[in-house]
Backbone:
């Protein structure tokens, strides 16, 4: 059974985009793989985090993952900083990766923006930590969004260079699982922009804890054009807002945009939007309720995360110990 690792940053309540593009696709992977799901707080602090907010958001993300169907009994759900192996292996990888490789990372360029001198050194070596996350478990499959593909290529470069330099077939190749590219969810205010937690307008996104009234209102106010829905996907060209709402509907009902249009083509948005809102409520309301139920007992979530960390350590510690032996570190005991 292949081992899967994926990480998600504790950066606030996830959006519908995070859900359809990432979390929801993780759940069925649990049927056929051994999975490690990690809330990556070490990655989060590469940009400033208010300490109290970081702790709260780490627990919230764990609760959302559990509410979405991540199974902590059969798989491993844990917090990155609870397992020292990540930071230990990341240091070694800082010494394997070349500056030239990191200089090519487009996410760093995007996140650093114009003021490159002012960002943390952590933001720069972020991909090395990500490689350590995966390789500390010898995981071979990594479900991620398309934006993370370049980081996984770098992880493979690190693994290969390590194996070459230390003359050992130790780290396995990693395969990205790019899931649900069909479900790139766009902003409700601008169909050409990605739906994002960081958009200043809350009206631009559905949050996984929005209540039914909020969802209905956001969908009612969602930007659209005046035309009715076409009956074929070709009719969505140059109609990004319409395409987005149809795409969301299709993703939520696990069908295709053409099937949605076959059924709803000809309807105006006045008729289609309430259907979409009801569908969203039926999928998200149970998740919101379960998240709230879990968050009412933080000690229980913390116990689940502690148990997950113990299981993660049992896998990662021997792999990091062997890495250190290969590097030539004197055995600590
Ligand atoms: P982020 O919150 O941007 O760090 O993303 C966490 C995960 O959610 C990544 O796998 C992203 O690819 C995915 N994701 C974020 N926003 C969207 C979106 N609007 N549509 C689809 N997937 C998304
Ligand atoms: N960088 C990933 C993101 O922002 C999160 C992440 C950290 C991750 N470590 C990982 C994803 C390891 C996959 C595997 O989405």
Residues:
């Amino acid at each position: 059974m292949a081992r899967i690792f994926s990480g998600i940053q504790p950066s606030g309540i996830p959006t519908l985009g995070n859900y359809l593009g990432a979390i929801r696709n993780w759940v069925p992977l649990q049927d056929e793989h051994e999975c490690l799901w990690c809330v990556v707080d070490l990655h989060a602090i590469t940009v400033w985090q208010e300490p109290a907010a970081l702790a709260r958001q780490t627990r919230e993300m764990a609760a959302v993952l559990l509410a979405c169907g991540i199974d902590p009994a059969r798989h491993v759900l844990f917090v990155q900083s609870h397992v020292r192996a990540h930071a230990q292996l990341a240091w070694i990888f800082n010494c394997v990766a070349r500056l030239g490789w990191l200089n090519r990372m487009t996410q760093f360029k995007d996140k650093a923006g114009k003021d490159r001198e002012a960002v943390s050194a952590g933001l720069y070596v972020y991909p090395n930590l990500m490689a350590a996350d995966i390789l500390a478990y010898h995981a071979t499959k990594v479900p991620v969004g398309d934006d993370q593909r370049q980081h996984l290529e770098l992880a493979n470069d690190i693994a290969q260079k390590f194996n070459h330099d230390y003359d050992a077939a130790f780290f396995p190749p990693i395969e990205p699982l790019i899931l649900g590219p069909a479900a790139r969810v766009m902003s409700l205010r601008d169909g050409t922009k990605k739906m994002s937690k960081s958009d200043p307008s809350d009206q631009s996104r559905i949050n996984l804890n929005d209540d039914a009234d909020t969802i209905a209102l956001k969908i009612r106010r969602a930007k659209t054009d005046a035309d009715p829905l076409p009956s074929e996907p070709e009719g969505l060209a140059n109609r990004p807002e319409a395409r987005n709402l149809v795409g969301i509907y299709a993703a939520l009902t696990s069908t295709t945009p053409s099937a949605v249009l076959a059924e709803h083509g000809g309807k105006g948005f006045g008729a289609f939007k309430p259907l979409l809102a009801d569908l969203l409520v039926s999928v998200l309301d149970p998740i919101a309720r379960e998240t709230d139920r879990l968050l009412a007992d933080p000690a229980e979530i913390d116990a689940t995360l502690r148990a997950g960390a113990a299981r993660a350590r049992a896998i990662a510690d021997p792999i990091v110990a062997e890495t250190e032996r290969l590097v030539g570190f004197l055995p600590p005991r």
Remarks:
- Residues 227 and 268 are 7 Å apart (CA to CA).
- The beta strands are 3-8, 34-39, 76-79, 141-144, 175-178.
- The chain has 13 helices and five strands.
